[in-house]
Amino acid sequence: MKMPKQGTSKDAIVTQMERYRLADGDAAGSRLFSLVYTTRPDVVEVAKDAYLRFFSENALNPMTFPSLRRFETEVLGMTQELFHAPEGAGGSMSSGGSESLLLAVKTARDWARATRPEIKEPEMLLPITAHPALPKAAHMCGVKIVLVPTRADFTADVEAAKALFTDRTILVVGSAPQYPHAVMDPITDLAALAASRGVLCHVDACFGGFFLPWVEKLGHDVPPWDFRVPGVTSISADLHKYAYTAKGASTIIYRTKALRRHQYFVHADWPGGLFGSPSVLGTRPGGAIAAAWAVMNYLGEEGYLELARQAMSATGKILRGVSETPGLRVLGKPVMSSIAIGTDAAAVPGPTGEGLDLYVLADLMQARGWRVDRGQNPPSLHLTISPAHDALAPKFVEDLRACAREVVDTGVQAQGAAAMYGMLGKLPDRGIVRDALLDFMDGIEAMADTAIDEASRARP
Questions:
Q1: Partners of residue 342 on adjacent β-strands
Q2: Which of 39, 294, 308, 326 qualifies as a cystine partner to 50, CB 3.0-4.6 A?
Q3: Residue 148 counted as domain residue
Q4: Domain with 368 in it: what CATH number?
Q5: Mean pLDDT over all residues of the chain?
């Protein structure tokens, strides 16, 4: 596409935008189980209104827009209370989980430079189930990742972490919960290991940070994970997930403001003036900050508790449905409104003896309008469950059972995404898989065009 010679009318623009979105996942209809955290329409309207009121504001300079600084300070104050942060804690908002995790790794690296200058090649201990944003952050910050294996229950193996700890280790990371299986890493033990060796411990609660406190208040068993655990030095948690605020908004909280100072970047000698930045971004959209403040105040504790109750109700219905479907089982012991579905080869061996093909099952479910994530090692289907799924859970379970029977009874062959995942997941040379992923990313523009064209033909 080239820049048009003349401007396009608003009506024509809207028509084209709606055509482009024909192939998109149905976020508003709550048929997605990732990427979007669907809640009540009134909550969405509050977020939209607040975002648009501060659509043009930029939080780069808090002296120009003190309202945004006030919003951010109050959001962080509510977050610190929720995470039981001690007096003297400090934090920042960011654009999302990836930025929060990058800030956590950058802070650990710069803390080590200031306090452990003898370490020239810093390392961080990272469970293999940790979010890929952490290896990305380590790559960008020049910190070597040392992968910690998991136990049979998919939680980080603390004994293995102890054996992997070296004099170069500056950071230990655990997830609350980890995304692939929604199980909690043993934060208490990981934090104790870090504290015993005088290093930092970061808890990646980007996924669960704004859900676990309400689950605990509802009486569910939640292992310790926040600042009540000695040795935890920082926590990241995304507002645009289970706090239901506008994208992109996240938080990172430090046990002390002194530790937070290592997150900042300042430049005192720029001819353009004195420059300071609390996070990675320069321009910081005011809308996301204002929307977070508005939604948190709109819902309050009672509102969040009710939404958590609905999400856990939906989770219970789906868990029962999975457990009652031959050939399927839940992996691990999920602690919140997210589950990973695996195969039960003992119940339904499948053509290869490995159980029914989950990737084919995912394709059949997508054909019925449901979109789920595909996991690997072992193969799995991942569901992130929102309050809006409560009403749809019975229909989802009905379709899941029907599709599972179809896979078993008809021997449907893997095509499309199922074939790609099945093939790449079994290749021992992961370098080939990485190259394939790069090729996929190079071709994603053409794939989007094809999807839009096919959707347009189906629904002109």
A1: 329
A2: 294
A3: yes
A4: 3.90.1150.160
A5: 90
Residue 427 placed within a domain: yes
- DSSP, residue by residue, 45-92: HHHHHHHHHTSS-BTT-TTT-HHHHHHHHHHHHHHHHHTTPPTT-EEE
Which residues constitute the domain of residue 446?
Answer: 324-458
Q: CB within 8 A of 13, min separation 6: which ones?
A: none
Element (H, E) at 284: none
Residues 187 and 53 in one domain: yes
Q: Is the pTM of this model over 0.85?
A: yes
Taking the alpha carbons at both ends of the chain, their separation in whole angstroms is: 22
Structure tokens at 371: 């979109």
Segments in 165-211 forming alpha helices (H) = 187-196
Helix (H), strand (E) at residue 210: none
User: In the structure, what pLDDT confidence band is assigned to residue 35 with cuts at 50, 70 and 90?
Assistant: confident
Residue among 131, 84, 128, 83 nearest 104 (CA): 131
Does residue 446 share a domain with residue 384?
yes
C-beta separation of 57 from 304 below 8 A:
no
Query: Residue 391, SS3?
Result: coil
Local structure of residue 388 (DSSP, 8 states): G
Q: Look at residue 41 in the predicted model and tell me its pLDDT.
A: 92
Higher pLDDT, 35 or 331: 331
Backbone angles phi, psi at 381, to 5 degrees: -115, 130
Convert the pLDDT of each residue in 205-253 to its tens digit.
999 999 999 999 999 999 999 999 999 999 999 999 999 999 999 999 9
CA 171/CA 158 separation, integer angstroms: 14
Structure tokens at 295: 């939604």
At 412, which amino acid appears?
V
Strands 373-375 and 338-343, by their bridges, are unpaired
- Chain centroid to CA 400: how far? 24
Domain count for the chain, please give it.
Answer: 2
Cα separation, 457 vs 460, whole angstroms:
5
Digit-coded pLDDT (tens) for 271-322: 998 888 888 988 899 999 999 999 999 999 999 999 999 999 999 999 999 9
Which contacts (CB < 8 Å, 24+ apart) does range 196-201 have?
197/165, 197/169, 199/169, 199/170, 199/171, 199/172, 200/107, 200/108, 200/111, 200/170, 200/171, 200/172, 200/233, 200/234, 200/259, 201/171, 201/172, 201/173, 201/174, 201/231, 201/232, 201/233, 201/234
Is residue 197 domain-shared with residue 343, that is, in the same domain? no
